[in-house]
Amino acid sequence: MSIAQHLEQLYTRIPPHVSLVAVSKFQPVSLIREAYTAGQRVFGENRSREMSEKIPLLPRDVQWHFIGHLQTNKVREVVGKAVLIQSADRVSVLKAIQLQAQKLGIVQDVLLQVYIAGEDTKQGFLPEELTSVAGLSLPNVRVCGVMGMATFTEDLQRVRKEFRGLRELFETLKKGPYAGSEAFRHCSMGMSGDYHIALEEGSTMVRIGSAIFPPRPQRP
After folding, report:
1. For 169-211, what is each residue's pLDDT tens digit?
2. Any idea where the domains of the chain sit in the sequence?
3. What pLDDT is stored for residue 117 in this prediction?
4. Long-range contacts (CB closer than 8 Å, 24 or more residues apart) made by 212-216
5. pLDDT tens, 33-87?
6. Chain segment 103-131, per-residue pLDDT in tens
7. What percent of the chain has pLDDT over 90?
8. How much is the pTM?
9. What is the pLDDT of residue 217?
10. CB contact burial 203-217 (16+ within 10 A = b; e otherwise)
11. CB-side exposure of 200: number of CA atoms within 13 Å?
12. What pLDDT score does 110 carry?
């Protein structure tokens, strides 16, 4: 199947109120352009330099999401370029985003990445930390919701439980410290292998790569 056919299939499976982020990391501009021609406008990158190199080579109406682990010394390469930073996973990163956004005179949208998986390779805030995070003074940072990655496992019930927990946390935050915030509306969860479960558990945004693009070798 072509990229366009893969996208058409996904568009029929994903409800209209759910955003599809096409994960384009490691993919060449030519294939991203194919997805763009097929109607896709939101793309996710996980390396700041790669995203910066791709931005001027693609149409200006592409919406870039940064979805990878963000080092504080790379924040300046992402703020103001990504419409949404999905991987704000610790206080030091939030403060660095605030500083850079203030320098640029903008408000940067972010999601709070939450640690929901039982794997050391995953990052994120612990659920019990998020109330205090909401109390931080970050006038140039707009928190738009939460993001999480489930455990990489064949135990689908475990995956479902982790997604359900994130959705419940999202609803608690929405009624609590973020009550009244129109921006706080995203619960980003679900990737190529588990997005169908994430949708059933209330995801508002899925991040899909291998179900759209052909496999690419991982860069070092």
Report:
1. 999 999 999 999 999 999 999 999 999 999 999 999 999 999 9
2. 3-208
3. 84
4. 212/3, 212/6, 212/7, 212/10, 212/22, 212/23, 212/35, 212/40, 213/3, 213/22, 213/23, 213/24, 213/27, 213/31, 213/35, 214/31, 216/26, 216/27
5. 999 999 999 999 999 999 999 999 999 999 999 999 999 999 999 999 999 999 9
6. 999 999 999 999 998 766 678 999 999 99
7. 91
8. 0.94
9. 56
10. bbbbbbbebbbeeee
11. 10
12. 98
Closest to 213 in 3D by CA, of 79, 72, 33, 54: 33
At 163, which amino acid appears? Answer: F
Which tokens in the block code for residue 30?
């030519």
pLDDT of residue 218: 57
Which of 57, 53, 79 minimizes the C-alpha distance to 66? 79
Token pair of 134 as six digits: 């909401």
Long-range pairs for 196-200 at CB < 8 Å and ≥24 separation?
A: 196/13, 197/156, 197/159, 197/160, 197/163, 198/150, 198/163, 199/14, 199/15, 199/18, 200/160
> At the topology level of CATH, where does 3-208 sit?
TIM Barrel (3.20.20)
